[in-house]
Amino acid sequence: MAEGGRAVSEQAAAAGTHGAWTPEGETPPRVSEDAVIAALKTVFDPEIPVDIYELGLIYAIEIADDGAVTIEMTLTAPGCPAAQELPRQVEEAVSAVPGVTAAKAEVVWDPPWDHSRMSEDARLALNMF
Q1: How far is Cα 25 from Cα 21, in angstroms, rounded to an integer?
Q2: What is the DSSP letter of 18?
């Protein structure tokens, strides 16, 4: 039995599906934007106690038919110490969403981030009115 499970895992790994492998003929689950957003809300800027989605660092979420997800994001400042870490954390969090076959975070600087992009909840949490 373990060998058969290993074969399934190897097939999934070979396909690059990170556990989203399904038997032939089955349709993999459709990736929902809500599930991607929920995953993004688990990623926090290490200097700010608010998740990156509520901070307004996520500019776009693109979900392809094959389950590949591209996130367009920014950082609070070009010299942000988490510049290397946050995109990797975003990719890891989104990769764990059922049906996601690949996750790519692209950092952009235009338009620049400012406080107006924060949600009302984030402003309340940071006492920024």
Answers
A1: 11
A2: T
Q: What is the pLDDT of residues 35-60, one digit of tens each?
A: 999 999 999 988 888 999 999 999 99
* Phi, psi angles (nearest 5°) of residue 115: -60, -25
Neighbours of 26 (CB within 10 A): 8
Which residues fall within 8 angstroms of residue 121, CB to CB, at 6 or more apart? Answer: 50, 54
Q: pLDDT (tens digit, 9 = 90+) per residue, 60-104?
A: 999 999 999 999 999 988 888 888 899 999 999 999 999 999 999
Domains defined for the chain, CATH in brackets: 29-109 (3.30.300.130)
Burial class (CB in 10 A: 0-12, 13-18, 19+), 99: buried
Collapse the DSSP code of 30 into the 3-class scheme (helix H, G, I; strand E, B; otherwise coil) and give the result: coil
Output the pTM of the full model. 0.76
Q: Report the alpha-carbon angle 107-90-46, nearest 5.
A: 90
- Residue 100 and residue 84: Cα distance in Å, rounded? 22
